[in-house]
Amino acid sequence: MSADILKTPIEFLKGVGPQRAELLNKEIQVFCFEDLLYFYPFRYIDRSRFFLASEITEDMSYVQMRGFISDIQLHGQKRTTRMTAWLTDKHGGRVELIWFNGFKWLKGKFLPGQEYIVFGKPTRYGNKYNISHPEVEPVSPAAINQQSVMQPVYPSTEKLKSRGLDSKGISKLLKTLLPQVMDFINETLPQKLRDDLRLLPLRRAIHNIHFPEDTKTLARARARLKFDELFFIQLNLIKLKHVRTSEARGHVFRTVGDYFNNFYHNNLSFELTQAQRKVMKEIRQDSLSGKQMNRLLQGDVGSGKTIVAVMSMLLALDNGCQACLMAPTEVLANQHFESIGSMLEGLGVEVRLLTGSTKKSERKVLAEELADGRLHILIGTHALIEDTVVFRNLGMVVIDEQHRFGVAQRARLWKKNTTPPHVLVMTATPIPRTLAMTLYGDLDISVIDELPPGRKPIKTIHQYDTHRLKVFGFMREQIKQGRQVYVVYPLIKESETLDLKDLQDGYESIVRDFPLPEYAVSIVHGKMKAADKDYEMQRFVKGETQIMVATTVIEVGINVPNASVMVIESAERFGLSQLHQLRGRVGRGADQSWCILMSSIKLSSDARKRLETMVSTNNGFVIAETDMKLRGPGDIHGTQQSGILDLKIADLSKDEKILKYARQKAMEILEKDPGLQHAENYLLGKTLRKLFQAKVVWSKIS
Ligand code: ADP
Ligand code: MG
């Protein structure tokens, strides 16, 4: 047998068969032996000891106890029925057990005089604890033995569970699988690297991840696998960067010509900030180096990244190239198209828009103009990366606010030209360091750390709903001074209709409390027709309305310097980065701006922390770090769903140290052996090819 045994369809594992195999495919994307091998538990339960009722504390997420079960009772009627029982430990301490269904089956199950092992999540109730839906098992030598370790918990789904593939079922499959394949698992890290970092061999790590020998070895196994995951991402990114800087050519923009100069002298209505100048200098140097630029531009909302993008694109035009700018949504693409169009007025620059809603006939014209070079700057959404979009000579690509745009996606853009275009990635959502390293670890970084002059830092205040009248009073005062106000409501997919009702109610109460003619109110939400939305937005932009009641659709795009108050309703329901983005809609003019976070009095501790963070800082980086700590990185910027950062075991909010080691090691190794051709690095090259070849064909890039 060969190493191909790892690719054996999961159907052929003893205990699986065709039907379960189909479920494993569909539900957890396990297709072959290898997939199951790398299907890791998401946590472990410490079943190495039994706790007494008196030892339970509030912060325990799970507890294992041992004792007798008595006083089984049914309460309530029909839909409110529940069954309770008491567990008494050997010191007489008691914990209540509760079930809300399954009584019939349960009732006869517990025998007096029989000792049970009970396991579940304790919840405090007065000065007692209860456990709802505990796992209960009679004490037996086998049960005790089995319980004496860290027990893995695998993610499962309802469908899998109904076929016996709950966490335990999956563990059972692994018990069958491991001995069959252990000899075919190939080490991925050279001995020396493992020795340097005292990492477990891969086989031992994988064995321990599924069947921990003890707590300590489990920790080392996890560290080893986390290292692997993060290390190969870094190795890939840094190797790419080496290839780009050593082999791949880049456009050389020697000339600063008419497009750039005319814009700078005639169309630019303000002085650039120091920070903007510094970044332009960096871009200019990159574009003279003969290498392809790949640069990440970080700058808080309102710091003036668009101008930098525009000037970079004009530089490309001055050197006979075309440019494009990609935005995450149609709204934002539209807004860029309009604002950049008007910025470039009179310069003879052809700017066009391409989004999902661009008509076929228009696309045809567009394609022709792109191909013959008449079209200079193309602005749009993801539609831009489609292979049907062909430029005559693309020299500069700007990517705005695309947190899901990893190296593989960028590579598609590089391939749009024989000489790969320079790439500028812009973001206002400061990305936590670890995520930036993982997603953009191959990019050079520029920062705009200064706002245009005259801006006053936004003041942020948290108010409970009960103080609404006070907030209304404040809004009146500001409007009297000529300012405009946003009132934003959450809109979350799952309860869209409810949210919409909140928004409508809010709108009506505002219209009532702020009567015409002094106050005109705009309303905008996602369910409106584009034309109506546009009309309402325009009224606010032109100053015809004083209050804009909206859902988060205003998060992106809109720029109204005269708006100085942002009231966020049910602020506890927003994530931190979203709150920060919303706040960034004000503070764009010279006046003092305010962000008022409204919430109910009842707040979860996380929600409270989010609101406190918002009140205490305007620093986007601090906010991003806090956000990641609170939420975990899983869903930060939607990277998880997008599959760009498909981390199985590493956790970017906790594993910064491992990531740093990984990055440092990757750099050291590639420094000495950029092509991974030395014998000692053979394994690394092989693994890297296996992991990334399918995704990024970067050999074709240069
Ligand atoms: P962001 O970095 O959020 O994309 P924008 O590029 O949209 O910021 O700029 C925000 C606002 O600041 C715009 O109205 C822009 O015209 C203005 N702005 C940019 N740079 C300067 C500057 N150096 N001086 C004054 N205003 C500026
Ligand atoms: Mg912007």
Largest sheet: 7 strands, mixed
Instruction: Count up the helices.
Output: 25
Overall SS class: alpha/beta
The name CATH uses for the topology of the domain at 459-617 is Rossmann fold
Which geometry do the CA atoms define?
A: globular
Looking at the overall shape, the CATH architecture of the domain at 459-617 is 3-Layer(aba) Sandwich
Distance from N terminus to C terminus (CA atoms, Å) equals 40 Å
| Radius of gyration using CA atoms only | 30 Å
Description of the structure:
It is a single chain. The strands form 4 sheets. The chain has a 7-stranded mixed β-sheet with strand order 6-7-4-3-2-5-8, with no helix packed on it. A 7-stranded parallel β-sheet has the order 12-13-11-14-15-10-16, with helices on both faces. Residues 633-644 and 695-702 have low confidence and may be disordered. 41% of the residues lie in helices and 17% in strands. By secondary structure, the protein is α/β, with parallel strands linked by helices. Among the domains are: 1-46 and 158-185, no CATH class; 49-148, Nucleic acid-binding proteins (OB fold (Dihydrolipoamide Acetyltransferase, E2P)); 258-288 and 304-427, P-loop containing nucleotide triphosphate hydrolases (Rossmann fold, 3-Layer(aba) Sandwich), CATH 3.40.50; 459-617, P-loop containing nucleotide triphosphate hydrolases (Rossmann fold, 3-Layer(aba) Sandwich). The structure holds adenosine-5'-diphosphate and magnesium ion. Residues 305-306, 428 line the site of magnesium ion (MG).
